[in-house]
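Tokens as discussed.
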């Protein structure tokens, strides 16, 4: 019975389980990952049936009987070399097969040449942006890809750690500031597929599931691509860089600073008293707090010194804060943030 159930479970997962009707396969690598899933589900289910089946069998076959002596003990097995050989050899063979299967798929995704088109996806708090060759600036709504064309997708992040996960593509990569991770695949099924962030990236992390990868026919993709070339014809390709001198705080916009604070700062700081720490201290009244006349770096709590921390970053007893470049802040952004912090009392 145990053997029959094990074989049936293997046949079901390997040949019959309708995985693609549960979750479509949008790219070529999805088929390979589904094959690995079938292998793991088939072997895991069969192993579960064998273990539980024999556990139940032994519990019944070697149960305590009324005729047993009070000090009776069960069957004792020692030094059975044949048994020890097989329970070592079989799991080893299973792990080797699983490793070869997994590494082959991983190499196809991670290694190889940058064939086809190259696209970049960048994580922000709390949205994704995309860069395409010969399209100026960044696209911040949907990522479009042409059907049947190999894609090399580089992913990274502007601020904190995010992730790029598309369940229908079976592909996922962490988006880490300063590090580029790469996914290689070929779209095989037209449609709209949701992008999800699986790394908690701040208070609005739950908002990072509202963008999609759209796989178009080549004609539809060409029309979309040319539309963005025209729309972004005058967009800047510049990436924010750290200023070398003191930042002018004139004209700082409180409302723009408040919005920036939500996007860039609220993952680590709250607008609350100093003692209310998220990662760093609360910043309510940071420029008007008699109990804390100095900032975390020991400098006086002045607008210029707050701007200096935003510009150069901070590392000390309170932890570490990225600098202006790592946070993707312009000089104007810093002026707006300082204006907002100054308004909190």
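Sequence:
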């Amino acid at each position: 019975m145990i053997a029959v159930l094990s074989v049936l479970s293997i046949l079901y997962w390997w040949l019959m389980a309708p995985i693609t009707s549960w979750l479509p396969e949008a790219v070529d690598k999805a088929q390979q990952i589904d094959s690995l899933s079938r292998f793991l589900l088939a072997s895991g289910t069969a192993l579960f049936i064998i273990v539980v089946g024999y556990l139940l069998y032994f519990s019944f076959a070697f149960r305590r009987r009324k005729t047993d002596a009070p000090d009776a003990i069960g069957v004792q097995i020692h030094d059975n070399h044949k048994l020890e050989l097989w329970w070592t050899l079989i799991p080893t063979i299973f792990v080797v097969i699983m490793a070869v299967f997994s590494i082959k798929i991983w190499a196809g995704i991670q290694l190889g040449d940058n064939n086809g088109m190259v696209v970049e996806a960048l994580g922000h708090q709390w949205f994704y942006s995309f860069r395409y060759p010969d399209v100026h600036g960044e696209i911040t709504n949907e990522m479009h890809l042409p059907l049947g064309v190999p894609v090399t997708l580089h992913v990274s992040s502007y601020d904190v750690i995010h992730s790029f996960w598309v369940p229908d593509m079976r592909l996922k990569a962490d988006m880490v500031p300063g590090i580029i991770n790469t996914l290689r695949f070929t779209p095989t099924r037209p449609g709209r597929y949701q992008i999800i962030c699986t790394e908690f990236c701040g208070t609005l992390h739950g908002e990072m599931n509202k963008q999609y990868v759209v796989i178009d026919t080549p004609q539809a993709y060409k029309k979309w691509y040319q539309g963005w070339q025209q729309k972004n014809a005058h967009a800047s390709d510049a990436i924010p860089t750290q200023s070398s001198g003191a930042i002018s705080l004139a004209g700082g916009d409180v409302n723009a600073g408040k919005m920036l604070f939500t996007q860039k700062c609220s993952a680590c700081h709250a607008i609350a008293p100093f003692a209310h720490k998220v990662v760093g201290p609360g910043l309510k009244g940071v420029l008007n707090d008699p109990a804390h006349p100095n900032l975390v770096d020991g400098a006086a709590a002045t607008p210029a010194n707050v701007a200096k921390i935003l510009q150069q970053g901070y590392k000390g007893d309170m932890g570490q804060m990225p600098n202006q470049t790592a946070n993707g802040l312009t000089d104007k952004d810093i002026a707006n943030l300082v204006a907002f912090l100054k308004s909190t009392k």
